[in-house]
Amino acid sequence: MIALRNKYGLLLATLCVLFTACSKDLALSPTDQVDDSKAFLTVEDLQKGLNAAYARYSRWGSMYVGALASDEIKFGPDNGGSGQFTYRLQYGNDATTGGDVLQGFAAYYSLIDQVNRVLPHIQTVTAERPGDDALRPVIEGQLLGLRAIGHFELLQWYSKRYDPTDDLGVPVMTKSDMLGKPARNKVSEVLAQVEADLSAAKAAVPDFNAGNYNDLMLNKWSISAIEARVALYKGEWQKAVDLTTAIINSGVKPLVTGNDFAGLWQDLNTNESLFRLRYETNSVNGAIWTSTGGNVIFSPSDKLTNSFSNDDIRKNIFIGDLSGKRTVNKFFVSPRGGRVVDAKAIRTAEMYLIRAEAYAKLPAPNVTAAAADLNFLRSKRINGYTDEVFGSAQAVISAIIQERFKELCFEGFRFFDLKRLGLPLQREASDVDSPNWQTLPADHFRFTLPIPASELLANPNMVPNPGYN
Hints:
With about 475 residues, this protein is mainly α.
């Protein structure tokens, strides 16, 4: 399997500092010189292996594809061709046209492979320090959580919209196998592995409260949040309600407003952050929109910009201006420098939106509860907001989807939301330079991203996604 044959030097990878860099911060060279039995000898080595797994998890790919292939952005005034095939919906399964949409395949399988290298050594390594034995399950739980994230992301990228009739998913990998040629598992099999890993992870990871919360590691609340995403994906509405209610009622990361909310996006605080990815020097999250030199590569779309009222604090927090050029402001600057901003992988606001949608889609829709969640979130974002009353489940669902568009913009959700919901992509005419890429019909084959051609060539058991030559 191509993605799993790119072997990284384990000793070098373990030098990564916990939660402070993504894989692009590392200068890694392929090597076959160190086997796992020599790399993992102590519990401290396990921790370093976990650190390397965190380093391989990045949200920027989902953020980039989720915006370019949807209606969140438009070409910026300084764009010299970046992302053109993805934005113009012309991506294929080769590196020439599909580089953006293919990179998730190798990235997430690299994460999964790192996890699978460490897991077999959890109980066999030596405990050298007091408390080492207590760390074993905590490390194991975080690894399992990361493996679940990897498989779930791959499923969203490379499998069709969820259908209980059981379409092809992606290969499930629970052990490191550099020479393996795995076939694609069914979607149900992938989800069963994801849910099993999340369940085991939640039983092992720490249970923080509002006073000692650590959003730089997977814990019971952030694992529950991922479970809620899976439940939403599968249409398990009551489960989504129960999971998000537990998170919201815990009070660990309540919604905030004003400067308390604005500061989150400049890394001045961690308000509403259930799980984030730390970047000390890497500008990967911000520079995909605006370069560190100030070139505006992508601008927020007119459609998104015009969706915010002037009373909405998100308008100026999310959308900025640089010498007359409209910019993505969400990941623009922190005290560590321009475009060096942490990725907010899970936020409390998303939990309110998941619960609101789930309430509205219950077999007996609870429109009142759905509206209450939506109105409460809006009250934190819109000055002088007056609660809206909805006359039907469909009316509140439409409003919730629109609120996801605004609240979660540039965070890696929009394209995958359109796919999950079976909605078409519809861009404003002012956001495109040709009507050929203004729309994408619901359930079009391009909502399922292509399996890389390199993978198909190397693995005879791999089946391509329909529509891609």
